[in-house]
Specification:
Number of helices: 3
Structural class: alpha+beta
Distance between the termini: 32 Å
Shape: globular
Number of strands: 9
Helix content: 25-40%
Strand order of the largest sheet: 7-8-9
Strand content: 15-25%
Length: 133
């Protein structure tokens, strides 16, 4: 795995090597939570040099039309953050909402263009409008 400029060639969890299965599905959901845990520990210990017990965690998620997939992913993420990383708090925010707030506007039309897809989402007073997908 490669995260930024850092290379994690053989991810391990408690000294045991993990399988080479992909961490994310093409839809952007986590498929291998053991590898995700190893990635989080690598990021906290080797990239940020921070103890996750000392800092709340802010996670952005992509906006999907299927709300049930997002709910199961958030539950698994919260379980990982609280039980394995011992984070004091976690907040999961929608990506378009964070993009609007980053530009200083609580209401905006956020257009995201990537290599594989493009999306537009209306944000009104800090809430992503799912009907605008």
């Amino acid at each position: 795995f490669v995260f930024g400029d850092m290379k994690l060639a053989k991810p391990t969890l408690h000294g045991q090597p993990l399988s080479a299965s992909p961490l994310m599905s093409p839809q952007g959901t986590v498929t291998d939570w053991d590898s995700a845990e190893a990635m989080w520990w690598h990021l906290f210990s080797n990239c940020m040099y921070a103890d996750p017990r000392d800092h709340p965690l802010l996670v952005s998620e992509r906006l999907t039309a299927d709300m049930t997939v997002g709910m199961t992913q958030r539950e698994a993420l919260a379980q990982l953050a609280f039980e394995k990383l011992d984070c004091p708090a976690i907040f999961v925010a929608k990506g378009p909402v964070l993009t609007a707030f980053a530009s200083g506007r609580p209401t905006a039309l956020v257009v995201e263009v990537g290599a594989l897809e493009a999306s537009a989402c209306a944000v009104h007073d800090g809430f992503a409008l799912h009907k605008s997908l």
